[in-house]
């Protein structure tokens, strides 16, 4: 189920590319948008905004241990971390932590962090946004492009 969660989050991170039109291939040209195959993957995926952000995270006993506030996409386009608010009051986070996405699972439509407690989450180092790059890295900066 964890690999399905990662696959669904990656598919949903194709921000706004939901076109279902197919494009003719022209030599030397790359069409904008997505192919029918990719569009189908997007439709089968999750919307991060609608299905992930601000959703509760529970432990294996069903106790709420936090809320997903953000998803970190690594430079290689993989979904790498969920930023979880460990302490929240009136929608304002007081202690965000980074949890590797592989540690989250989905059971009965709920995000589960096995073995977690509110105290364990609060004991983790606080995630600081000022250490995250504000702008994505250009595609040309990657070796495989």
TrEMBL record:
Cited InterPro entries: PRC-brl_dom, PRC_barrel-like_sf
Signal peptide, first to last residue: 1-24
Pfam families: PRC
Domain PRC-barrel: 52-113
UniProtKB keywords: Signal
Protein name: PRC-barrel domain-containing protein
Taxonomic lineage of the native organism: Bacteria, Pseudomonadati, Pseudomonadota, Betaproteobacteria, Burkholderiales
């Amino acid at each position: 189920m964890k690999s399905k969660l990662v696959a669904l989050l990656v598919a949903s991170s194709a921000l706004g590319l939901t076109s279902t039109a197919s494009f003719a291939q022209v030599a030397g040209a790359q069409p904008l948008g997505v192919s029918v195959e990719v569009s189908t993957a997007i439709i089968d995926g999750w919307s991060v905004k609608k299905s992930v952000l601000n959703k509760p995270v529970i432990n294996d006993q069903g106790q709420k241990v936090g809320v997903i506030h953000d998803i970190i996409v690594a430079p290689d386009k993989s979904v790498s971390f969920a930023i979880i608010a460990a302490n929240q009051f009136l929608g304002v986070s007081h202690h965000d932590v980074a949890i590797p996405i592989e540690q989250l699972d989905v059971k009965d439509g709920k995000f589960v962090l096995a073995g977690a407690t509110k105290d364990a989450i609060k004991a983790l180092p606080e995630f600081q946004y000022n250490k995250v790059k504000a702008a994505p890295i250009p595609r040309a900066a990657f070796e495989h492009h």
